[in-house]
Amino acid sequence: MKDKTLWHEYLEQACQRQIRARVLAAFNTNIDAIVHVTGELMDSIGAKDKSISWDKVEKGSAEAISAINTKEDLLIVLKDCLGGGKSFHIVLENLSLLDWLDDYFVGARENMGGQAGIIANQMASLGAQSIVYTPLLSPKQGRLFVDGVTTPLVQGNQAEIKPVPEAVRRDDETKINWIFEYAKGETVRFGKEVVITPRANRVILATRPKGSVMSFDKAIRDHLPKLGKSIDVAFMAGYHYAEPMNVDGRTFEEFMGDSVADLHALKEDNPDLVAHFEYVPMKRPELEPKMLQAICQEIKSFGINENEIKRVLREYGYEEEMEEIERHERAYSLYKGALRLFGHMELDRIHVHNLGYYVMILSKPYPVSMVEVRQSCLFASAVNAMKAKYGGYVQREQLAEAAELPLSDIGFAQLEGMVEELKKEHPRAEALLTDGYLEFADHYLVVTPAHIVPNPVSTVGMGDTISSSSYAAELAG
């Protein structure tokens, strides 16, 4: 593609941007305790804990276990999953086992988990004013927030924004997800039984403390208009946890009704406040269309990837667009699928991120110029590239390095392919190659190439990082 030099100039300019937006991230935060399961580790556990019933472990089957209540339950699941090279997600009901896990699965690496936690940390690391709201803020959870992240604190009839360390609550539970990673070819002994892992995979052991409710609590609800005045963009996450009957006793309909009312209250004194929802598949797909329709009454920006969009299209009955993506995934098919969702969900903004490129659709009129939107996408790609290369949370100073990394050939090829398919629909389709955007009768289309970092250190939270960095950068001023 002949215009790569021009796009590199765009990238260099984008990496100079500074996020000045005031950001809120809510609700889901947790701790990911990541441990690498080896034969040596399991041998040490067997040697140290003589109370384990290995007979139960050898005779047990993971298929018969719906939740973890004993250490033998966990060891049965690990034995079957490692032996079959399977991934698994199961809930830990007996929270007293957390102490046993700490004592015996030594060397676990603790990271911030949950979309709200990841976004709050990344925004603060880039220099934004970052506020997090999470229903559980134990000292252990609080330690994983980076310096600069603040949170609302209600005392009496007053609400103030305080640094996280000043707002932690000693009596709060901690939501922990234990992630047991294992490599291919690992020989592991479970009592007398030995398994050899046929492939690398992971087992996730999740906790669901009763206080982990994905909504604002009663104490802060009266202060939501004031909180809304102190922010420019809200990244809302966690609605995918909604159930027919939620842990706090509310039905699905009551939970969604309260959620919509809270979002409305947040914008009551700040009509310019914008909100974004990053898609995560619900465990109950039959509820998902209702959840999305409810939330999109108040949230008009939506982020999704190339695989997830197929599920939502199918749920809404757009089989033709879903099948075209399935048959030939490309920028054009993602655009057509996204355009369906854009209209159905009555959005102002949809951001589809894929390996090496992004596709965005925006309403007309849009409060930010398409040049700013394009530059914000390139900024997000730079942030994500540094996260992929080094892990952790990207500092603004690191973006100088990202400015020197080439944008992907996949992205440029997709841009060229998009132009060829759009020539039948738009007289100025070729402008996409140099501008990165096109204007249609009722919407704008933005397509940008993005970085691809080989052998990324981390892929966790990439979608959250891309969407939040892009949207916050649009408001850079």
The top-level CATH class of the largest domain is: Alpha Beta
Provide the domain count. 2
Please state the overall shape, judged from the principal axes of the Cα atoms: globular
- First and last CA, distance: 31 Å
Q: Find the CATH topology of the largest domain.
A: UDP-N-acetylmuramoyl-L-alanine:D-glutamate ligase
Q: What is the rounded Rg?
A: 23 Å
Average pLDDT: 95
Task: Describe the SSE topology.
Elements: H1 4-14, E1 22-27, E2 30-36, H2 39-48, H3 54-59, H4 71-84, E3 88-92, H5 97-104, E4 109-113, H6 115-125, E5 129-133, H7 139-142, E6 149-155, E7 158-163, H8 164-167, E8 176-182, E9 187-190, E10 193-196, E11 201-207, H9 218-221, H10 224-229, E12 233-237, H11 252-266, E13 274-278, H12 288-295, E14 301-305, H13 308-315, H14 319-327, H15 331-344, E15 349-354, E16 357-363, H16 370-390, H17 399-402, H18 409-422, H19 431-435, E17 437-439, E18 443-449, H20 462-474
Parallel strand pairs: 1-5, 1-12, 2-8, 3-11, 5-6, 12-13, 13-14, 14-15
Antiparallel strand pairs: 2-4, 6-7, 8-11, 9-10, 15-16, 16-18, 17-18
Helix pairs in contact: 1-16, 6-20, 13-14, 13-15, 14-15, 16-20
